[in-house]
Automatic annotation (TrEMBL), chains A, B:
Protein name listed in UniProt: LacI family transcriptional regulator
Higher taxonomy: Bacteria, Bacillati, Bacillota, Bacilli, Bacillales
Superkingdom of origin: Bacteria
InterPro entries membership: HTH_LacI, LacI/GalR-like_sensor, Lambda_DNA-bd_dom_sf, Peripla_BP_I
Segments passing through the bilayer: none
Database matches in PANTHER family: LACI-RELATED TRANSCRIPTIONAL REPRESSOR, RIBOSE OPERON REPRESSOR
Keyword Secreted set for record: no
Keywords: DNA-binding, Repressor, Transcription, Transcription regulation
Length: 339, 339
DNA sequence: CTGTTAGCGCTTTCAA
DNA sequence: TTGAAAGCGCTAACAG
């Protein structure tokens, strides 16, 4: 715990009897060949003195930090999972990931944190959704730092080098088909306007599912934050509907629905069928367990990092499309397992 | 998106017709006074040229990065919440927080990430639990970077400047008392050995609660990962016990218990009462809603950051104790609301 | 109040 | 294969 000043290459060089350039070559650079003897001397000196590279100095010197910044709305649930996979993928590519939140889509915090990241001269930026508008973003990231959006639809190429988007629309569309197939004769979509852009995608998918049914079916669209789910459920089942199908914004909303149904004595899946999204832990341990759409994190994270590497000029590009859509996969559990 | 090289103080100085030192004084330093005229010229030039401070260079020059590193087991649930509050507290103190995970207590990943943080010359480190042993930690953090532990009991002063620990033991102890008071005539503790140190604290509290009961009561201790909760519940209620009290490791485990009870038709809270820990979102939306112990994040995060500031030599110290215990507060919900 | 100058620790030509 | 030296952008004495 003593305030020891860290040892530098200067000291290592002195101890090894070589120049600092040589130390730098041996320790921190690949490709540059040195004699076995020199390598041995340098490594031994470094080891013995407890040398630890100063990446701040290295970053300044090379004007390249090997750091990637990530902005997510919060660390919770799906966002946190994504961050974990991104961290791993970044590491495998030789980069480090600095994770910041936007305090649940707070444009001020978001802006401030992006600014911090830019001041740190991160090599690239990954932003999940974005509370700021596109103009705001453009003026902030005007310096050429590559930006990859996650769940950002329709961002122009001069702002973002690309986007990796989850196939929410497809998942909701298919949920509708599946619920109807399972015998539901009326449908409800329970959204969450708290995340507007993302909610929109899902709603769009819900409508698409309705449209491709080939026939009309009663449905309603409500918001998790505005209505009492118990009331909605009771009213729906009091009507002509024998079996209601419910598409929930995510698994948190789905669990709320399950709880309300349990409380009201509504039988799942006989009277009510539910699909969630995200495949959160609570979907698995709920009773009845919730059918949900799971996210292929490795693919999502890998694609995002790859787009960045591509922008850095390092190859290994898996995909060329600017907006890449990651498909979700259905995990069927008890809230729909009725045939 | 063009690869513009960022503007530096040199260019701002030229545009403003002053020296780089003056620019530095005006833009990046507090306390140093300049004439109004100079300030105006410099700020205008900076604004117009789009100057953004390079904190990498500043960090190198001052040998102080104003960065704090945080290691948590994962971004999920409680850990993610904590990270969010720490980020806020750090920011308020003029620092930035870089968050890394240890991949669920993986000593290798943990070590690697701490090493990365140290290479970045963070001013301080906050570690949540730690998979590595104390010796390992000592040799890694031997350079004088202050380390604050979260939920680390018994760390010597030469490794960690202090610790901020949650009062799990107290919460579990009080849970026992409360459950018995609510009429439970036998108890179960369902732990999670996946997080050994933390589990131990809780178990200790459970035993303490038992001890201060003043009389014997049947109990059992099981592990969430080793047993089938349904079996445990059925067996317990098949015995002489009229009402079982269950102390769950956290709200995830508590929700598993609630689900099992719902499935078996066990009535909550008449036959079974449950307490969780963490006050996770799922405790609130479960049915029945789960009584849980909530964590005072602002206090916990604030104390941790404060200990670091103290170690940095900046004052504003709220507490002197090396190991500070943060008390949890009980949120009573339906799983115990029976009198 | 402002400018000169010597670093911070490392990387990277370019010669030797 | 190795080393001398010029930066990278900013800060912090120290003079003026």
């Amino acid at each position: 715990m003593s305030k020891t000043k860290p040892v530098t290459i200067v000291e290592v060089a002195a101890a090894a009897g070589v120049s600092i350039a040589t130390v730098s070559n041996v320790l921190n650079r690949g490709g540059i060949r040195s004699s076995q003897e020199t390598i041995r001397k340098v490594e031994q000196a470094a080891e013995q003195l407890g040398y630890r590279r100063n990446t701040v100095a290295a970053g300044l010197s090379r004007s390249k930090t090997f750091e990637i910044g990530l902005i997510i709305p919060s660390f919770g649930g799906y966002y946190g999972n994504l961050a974990e996979y991104l961290q791993l993928e970044a590491y495998n590519a030789g980069y480090h990931l600095s994770v910041f939140t936007s305090g649940w889509f707070n444009p001020l915090i978001e802006r401030k944190n992006i600014e911090v990241l830019l001041q740190r001269r991160v090599d690239g930026l990954i932003c999940h959704g974005l509370a700021m508008g596109q103009e705001s973003t453009r003026s902030l990231v005007n310096n050429g730092t590559p930006l990859v959006m996650i769940n950002g639809w329709g961002w122009p190429a001069d702002i973002a080098v690309g986007a990796v988007n989850l196939g929410f629309a497809g998942a909701c569309r298919d949920s509708v088909a599946l619920l109807v197939e399972r015998g539901c004769d009326s449908l409800i979509y329970v959204g969450s306007k708290r995340s507007s852009v993302i909610n929109e995608q899902r709603l769009q998918g819900f409508y698409a599912g309705l449209a491709q049914l080939g026939r009309d079916i009663p449905y309603q669209v409500v918001d998790n934050w505005e209505v009492d789910i118990e009331v909605i459920l009771r009213d729906s089942l009091a009507g002509a509907s024998e079996r209601v199908g419910l598409v929930a914004f995510d698994d948190v909303v789905a669990l709320k629905v399950v709880s309300a149904a349990n409380k009201l004595g509504i039988r799942i899946p006989e009277q009510l069928q539910i699909t969630g999204i995200n495949n959160d832990i609570m979907a698995e341990i709920s009773y009845p367990a919730i059918s949900s759409w799971s996210i292929p994190y490795p693919l999502q994270a890998g694609t995002a990092i790859n787009k960045l590497l591509h922008a850095f000029g390092q190859q290994d590009v898996r995909t060329e499309e600017r907006e890449f859509e990651v498909p979700l996969s259905f995990i069927e559990r008890e809230t729909t397992k009725f045939m």
